[in-house]
Amino acid sequence: MTTRTASARYSGFGKAGKGSISTQSGVMSDQPYGFNTRFEDEPGTNPEELIAAAHAACFTMALSFALARAGHADGTLETKAAVKLEQRDGGFTITRSDLTLDASVPGIDPAEFERLAAEAKANCPVSKLLNAEIGLTHNLNASG
Questions:
Q1: What is the mean pLDDT of the chain?
Q2: In this structure, what DSSP letter does residue 40 have?
Q3: Can you state the angle between helices 47-69 and 110-123, rounded to 10 degrees?
Q4: CA nearest to 49, candidates 57, 77, 88, 14
Q5: How high is the pLDDT of residue 48?
Q6: What is the pLDDT of residue 19?
Q7: Most buried residue among 86, 88, 91, 114 by CB atoms closer than 10 A?
């Protein structure tokens, strides 16, 4: 149905190498990344940050559409995703993506909200893509 693209370039190898990432939309163009942006505090991005952004956006949109289908027309959803990279067996593995959701959905039953949020977590395309444990914590303001 839809294909989106991004590209990465890396010059040099290992810790000394430097890379850049660009996206089809142009939102990111030659954004720096490398060892120092991934494991230290050098300005730039890294794969885990990009996965976290994609997961937060995908889940939030999936929940928004589920709420609309359930008849809810107003409110706000704010999601933070924390992607965990761990060293295991001589390499690195993304082991988790934890979603933290702050939601304001006037008039929703908390049980209905919890069900819709759990379904969105399980069924958003990025959740399906990740081969990691995916956690979800949420705070709901149902009074408006």
A1: 94
A2: S
A3: 130
A4: 57
A5: 95
A6: 96
A7: 114
Residue 77 · residue 103 · CB < 8 Å: yes
Cα 111 to Cα 128: distance, rounded to the nearest angstrom: 24
Token pair 């590209």 is found at 7
Cα distance between residue 47 and residue 49, in whole Å: 6
Report how far residue 19's alpha carbon sits from residue 28's, in angstroms, rounded to the nearest whole number: 13
Q: Within a 10 A sphere around the Cβ of 120, how many other Cβ atoms?
A: 25
Can you give the length of the chain in residues?
A: 144
SS3 15: helix
Specify whether the CB–CB gap between 101 and 82 falls below 8 A.
Answer: no
Which residues pair with residue 49 across a beta bridge?
Answer: none
Q: How far apart are CA 126 and CA 121, in angstroms?
A: 9
Contacts for 66 with CB less than 8 Å, ≥ 6 apart = 116, 119, 120
Burial class (CB in 10 A: 0-12, 13-18, 19+), 23: middle
**Of the candidates 125, 74, 120, which has an alpha carbon nearest to the alpha carbon of residue 101?**
120
Q: Which residues pair with 20 in a beta bridge?
A: 9, 32
What share of the chain has pLDDT > 70, as a percent? 99
